[in-house]
């Protein structure tokens, strides 16, 4: 459904007298299949939004190519526009308009007739449970309601693909869960959904496949399960005082059950082991022998954050 | 066909939003009415006009041109608010005509200016202003062209600067000399030679002269066709330039 090769974009920014070129996206290759929820995971500034905006015809790529729903992004952006929907991150509704007006207008911008646009708006309002507020001004809506209107706008012309830029940022947990259901419903309707997110749990729970992006590049791609499986075994987090950390590292390094050992800057160790349940007692015994006092011990099943960590050397939570 | 439909769509939407907030119509009329009531009475003695009606014949056309210039130049603020709300970005991902996005908005501005102009003309009638209807319609055409140009340029600049903080001083800096050099408040017949020389390079000065000639019932005057031609060319250039800004940044 989406196929990109070597897509890139750089921006020139001026700081004082110097002009700097920032490579926001440095060659992205993606293959998104029909009917899947594809997630773009990465920290702020990784280039997710820039890539999304390129795919949605909003900014012109500097290089590379892309085919979106069968249309060539570089040669025929107008055709791409007809086949996609796009829901921007910062909102797209006007305070003084009502949801119904916005939906009708947006449908008509696609060349849909007035009568048909009104029918579609009514159907969308119903599907997104907005009928009750349909004729109130957008400024009176809650964050979750407004986001639902925006998603409804993005799909009013029944596109093959819809791009959602950080669809749940700023929503409370309940609205967030609600939004996930809406997004799954889009998939059930046969649409291909492309979302960006910096929430690990969202990528994990919602997306069929994800690409992890960092510093303008895709560093990993696959289903969440596949990606986590690449990180073999479990992670044991050992909480230690900063002073005790080097000695503990020395003690545990080279233990047969420890595949990899990392020290945590604020004190403590991160141990990659095959089986957490059998490793923990051994770790406790070794540290006790060495007379080291530990503050905490935690067992982690590998998360997407660990995937991010092994690929980039940083934690997504920290960046 | 698609272009006309798209333009109409945007025009309708913008007009609807304007009407929803009638306070703007009131504000738009309030200021010129204040000029009409509180400033114009000074003009009869100042201009040495024989009657109050004669003073109005000079002042009202200038006031209307002033309204057209300022009404248009500050429309960019609305566009910046729309940019911020994401409404423009939302329009950009649809296949709607880029020129229609501009023209639908500018035509709304022209129509709202026309409404103001009619209200002010009607009020001036109370003060014994008399204008021939054909001349008045030509004067309105001139005003429409001015408003089309200033509003298009304002939208184009707004797309370029993208911030109210930059747009406000920019527009004021442009508007002030344009205003002073066009003889809007007082005719430039009183101006010393050097000032008139500079004013001759101000197209709005020609527009004001043309509109005054029409209000004076002097349809045959050269100033009429000169003013109309200059504003028509400028309006075309303004729309062309702004349309390019839309096409470029709104690709």
From TrEMBL, chain A:
Keywords: Antibiotic resistance, ATP-binding, Cell membrane, Membrane, Nucleotide-binding, Translocase, Transport. Belongs to the ABC transporter superfamily. Drug exporter-1 (DrugE1) (TC 3.A.1.105) family. It is found in: Cell membrane. It is a peripheral membrane protein. It comes from Micromonospora noduli. PANTHER family: ABC TRANSPORTER ATP-BINDING PROTEIN, ABC TRANSPORTER ATP-BINDING PROTEIN NATA. Pfam families: ABC_tran, DrrA1-3_C. GO terms for biological process: daunorubicin transport; doxorubicin transport; response to antibiotic. It comes from the Bacteria. Residues 2-240 form the ABC transporter domain. GO terms for molecular function: ATP binding; ATP hydrolysis activity. One of its GO terms (cellular component) is plasma membrane. This is Methionine import ATP-binding protein MetN. Its main location: membrane. The lineage of its organism: Bacteria, Bacillati, Actinomycetota, Actinomycetes, Micromonosporales.
UniProtKB/TrEMBL annotation, chain B:
The chain crosses the membrane at residues 21-43, 63-85, 106-127, 139-158, 178-195, 224-243. It is found in: Cell membrane; Membrane. GO terms for cellular component: ATP-binding cassette (ABC) transporter complex. InterPro entries: ABC2_TM (IPR013525), ABC2_TM_bact-type (IPR047817), ABC_2_transport (IPR000412), T7SS_ABC-Transporter (IPR051328). Keywords: Antibiotic resistance, Cell membrane, Membrane, Transmembrane, Transmembrane helix, Transport. One of its GO terms (molecular function) is ABC-type transporter activity. The keyword Glycoprotein does not apply. GO terms for biological process: response to antibiotic. Residues 23-249 form the ABC transmembrane type-2 domain. Pfam families: ABC2_membrane (PF01061). Belongs to the ABC-2 integral membrane protein family. This is Transport permease protein.
């Amino acid at each position: 459904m989406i196929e990109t090769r070597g897509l890139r974009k750089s921006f020139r920014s001026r700081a004082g007298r110097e002009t700097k070129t920032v490579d926001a996206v440095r060659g992205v290759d993606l293959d998104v299949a029909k009917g899947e929820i594809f997630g773009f995971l990465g920290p702020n500034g990784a280039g997710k939004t820039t890539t999304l905006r390129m795919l949605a015809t909003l900014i012109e790529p500097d290089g590379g190519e892309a085919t979106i729903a069968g249309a060539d992004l570089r040669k025929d952006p107008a055709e791409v526009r007809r086949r996609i929907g796009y829901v921007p991150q910062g909102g797209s509704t006007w305070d003084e308009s009502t949801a119904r007006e916005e939906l009708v207008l947006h449908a008509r911008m696609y060349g849909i007739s007035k009568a048909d646009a009104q029918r579609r708006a009514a159907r969308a309002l119903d599907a997104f449970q907005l009928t009750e507020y349909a004729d109130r001004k957008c400024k009176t809506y809650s964050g979750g309601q407004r986001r639902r209107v925006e998603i409804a706008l993005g799909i009013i012309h029944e596109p093959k693909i819809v791009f959602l830029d950080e669809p749940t940022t700023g929503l409370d947990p309940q609205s967030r869960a609600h939004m996930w259901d809406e997004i799954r419903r889009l998939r059930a309707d046969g649409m291909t959904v492309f979302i960006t997110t910096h929430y690990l749990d969202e990528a994990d729970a919602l997306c069929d496949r994800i690409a992890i992006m960092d510093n303008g590049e895709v560093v990993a791609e696959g289903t969440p399960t596949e990606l986590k499986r690449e990180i073999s075994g479990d992670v044991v987090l050992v909480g230690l005082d900063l002073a005790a950390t080097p000695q503990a590292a020395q003690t545990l390094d080279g233990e047969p059950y420890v595949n990899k050992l990392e020290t945590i800057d604020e004190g403590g160790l991160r141990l990659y082991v095959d089986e957490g349940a059998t490793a923990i007692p051994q770790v406790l015994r070794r540290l006790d022998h060495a007379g080291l006092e530990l503050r905490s011990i935690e067992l982690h099943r590998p998360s997407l954050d660990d995937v991010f960590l092994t690929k980039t050397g940083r934690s997504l939570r920290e960046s | 066909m698609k272009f006309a439909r798209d333009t109409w769509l945007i025009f309708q939407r913008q007009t609807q939003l304007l009407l929803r907030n009638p306070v703007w119509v009131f504000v738009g009329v309030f200021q010129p009415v204040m000029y009409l009531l509180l400033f114009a009475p000074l003009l009869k003695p100042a201009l040495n006009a024989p009657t109050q009606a004669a003073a109005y014949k000079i002042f009202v056309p200038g006031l209307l041109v002033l309204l057209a210039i300022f009404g248009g130049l500050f429309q960019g603020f609305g566009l910046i608010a729309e940019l911020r709300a994401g409404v423009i970005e939302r329009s950009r991902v649809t296949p709607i005509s880029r020129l229609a996005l501009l023209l639908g908005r500018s035509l709304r501005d022209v129509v709202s200016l026309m409404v103001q102009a009619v209200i002010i003309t009607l009020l001036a009638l109370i003060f014994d202003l008399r204008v021939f209807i054909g001349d008045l319609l030509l004067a309105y055409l001139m005003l429409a062209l001015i408003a089309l140009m200033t509003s298009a340029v304002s939208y184009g600049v707004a797309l370029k600067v993208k911030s109210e903080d930059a747009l406000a001083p920019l527009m004021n800096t442009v508007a002030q000399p344009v205003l002073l050099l066009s003889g809007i408040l007082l005719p430039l017949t009183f101006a010393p030679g050097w000032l008139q020389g500079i004013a001759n390079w101000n197209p709005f000065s020609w527009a004001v002269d043309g509109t005054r000639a029409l209000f004076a019932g002097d349809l045959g005057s050269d100033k009429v066709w000169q003013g109309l031609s200059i504003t028509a060319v400028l309006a075309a250039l303004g729309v062309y330039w702004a349309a390019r800004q839309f096409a470029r940044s709104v690709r």
